[in-house]
Amino acid sequence: MGELQKVFDYIEAHQQDYLDELFAFLRQKSISTTNEGVSECAQLLAGIMVRAGIEHVQIFPTKRHPVVYGDILVDPSLPTQLVYGHYDVQPADPLEEWDSDPFEPVIRDGKIFCRGCSDDKAQLFAYIKGVEAYRKVNGPKLPINIKYLFEGEEEIGSENLEEFIATHKELLQCDAAIYSDGHMHEMGYPILLLGHKGMVTMEMTVTGANRDTHSMRAPAIPSAMWKMVEILHSMKDETGTVKIEGFYDDVREPNQLERETAEKIPVDVEGIKRSYGIDHFVQNRTGDNYYYNIVFEPTCNIAGLFGGYMGEGSKTVLPHKVTAKMDLRLVPNQDPYDIVEKIKKHLAKHGWADGVEITTYHANFPARTPIDNPYVALAAKAVEMGFGEKPVLFPSVGGGGPHYIFDRQMHIPVIEIPLARADQNNHAPNESMGLHGFFCGIKMATALIEVLAGAKE
Ligand SMILES: [Zn+2]
Asked: Considering the entire predicted model, what is its pTM?
């Protein structure tokens, strides 16, 4: 730690410089869904990397938004770390709900407020400044190789990332990937996230008669609405167990180490209930254990349900068309495409297939890095050095991400180290990034260089 303390001192002395440079990066819009400023932001990011001493910086075009790559290659026999992050951001609307301009960063109460500050610009920026600080203090030669892969499409589902990785495997070859995104524990602890759920999003439309009709004909004309209710009711029971035949067939039940790790996640059950205004959790297959279910249980969620009369007052109509928007979050080794087939079979088996149309949107796979992978312990050590406290380990989170792409294409461990606070409001008005997590993250990124150096010894 002796040498590292000098780097930490350097980081503390340069906090204002980091904020100034980060703020310029934050002011540059990069809204991937509307294509506002994305290529300009890629240019700006490439410049930040070059100024930090990162080599071979390149902007790779994809079918939509560019990937920004750079590396510092020392010796192929040394461990190679890949840092993944994204420089694109969500739209800022609704603008009237922001307390300050969404693209003019300001600091209030120890937090930066700006669209994209926590998701994900300040987080990936910490790794750039980490390596810069390390070399300013210790000289340019690193004890590891580092590669940086920053995409511009994460907020729109990483559409072209798999193809980019599949066609640049040699360039990206590495021993472990550090995934820079996400938020820390609700109670403020730093964490390591070792997995992400897969997901399939779909729309199911039930059509009955060829037009809406007066509800006096309900005794004779079949109702699309009632059929939809029956279908949805058949898919999940009151305990939260999914009833689609074969849904759990490929679920790999958590192993002993995964269970024990999930049990150690601190949880404030009463606080969570209070915060949502509920008095109980979903029972689920194995009970109502909050983190067990968030981490290990697949879901079948109705995100929206519409059809018939939705206006004010009453209207006596028999609707002929109803739509449900759904998302199913999956765990290893469920396959999103297979799950859609199982839903179709479920409908056919009950005689409902006629007049039901299913459209799928996004599909991605679940992935988990084994907890006993040696890089997990090393990353935990770096977090402890950077934050001054041990991280809580999450075998997986409830959400998804491009983790599976690295898993499927490169077969490498992926470890997410979130720097944002749980109350970051990403994707929502008043997005914020805690200064504590940001500066500890820069220190953690330098500690990572030092601890990963020992990975191949
Ligand atoms: Zn996001």
From this structure: 0.92
